[in-house]
Write a structure and sequence with these properties.
The protein is an alpha/beta fold. 27% of the residues lie in helices and 11% in strands. Strands 6-3-5-7-8 form a five-stranded mixed β-sheet. A three-stranded mixed β-sheet has the order 2-1-4.
Amino acid sequence: MSTRSLQRGFTLVEMLMAIAIVAVLAGLLLPAVQMAREAARRMRCRNNLHQIGVALLSFESLHGRLPAGRDAERNWQHSWCTAILPQLEQTALHERYDFQRAWKDPANQAAAAANVAVFRCPSAIGQWDGKTDYGGNYGSALTGLRPGFSLGRAWEAGTFPSVHLTLPGQYRPAAVRLADITDGTSQTLLILEDADRPAAQGGLWASGHNCFAHDRGPVNGNNSKEIFSRHPRGANALAGDGSLRWLSDSLEPAVLGALCTRAGGEIAAD
């Protein structure tokens, strides 16, 4: 007598249960994968700021000052970013840029449209030529200073104020020296994240308007010339000694304002 083994397949119920288990596992794993990817992007963002910091301190060592946040001489509006291109190993791009013309002069159009990876945060989502997700620190009105670019006002109190402004009043004739940062370089910010800030609001690395003051709201409140990133719960920033700071979205406004001013005498304990 011969026996024949019976082959048994999945029933519909068993198949649905298997699909449900796979879906649950995928739901558990997906957030972990997304978190790992964001952690990697955040680290690359920090590395961008580290490179910018090395370039800025090298520039300061060579010239005795940081670059001007916005050099408005003759209304040319040159950016701090163009000044440090050689220190970022972008000598060829620096040589293509004509500093004897305005930043948006047709002669500078091709250079200004270049996509420089170190100026772009990998977590940002916007895409356009010449984009930047980082800006120089004008200062802040959060410590009680009155808004404005003239000497003693909030937008002159940071580390990248505008120079050579031709407006009524007194304005800075030269960029900031590290010695001017009397609050301490480790307690004063140089470069801030403002991811996906519109191009018309200074979101272009070659524009002299690639600086901003954080005057209102928490970190990551909005990206209209305020500290903002696509990282969850905070943003990266570069301090005057070249160190990197994580600015939590729960940071007290007074502390944030103190970090954005160079000589206010505040104690910025976060």
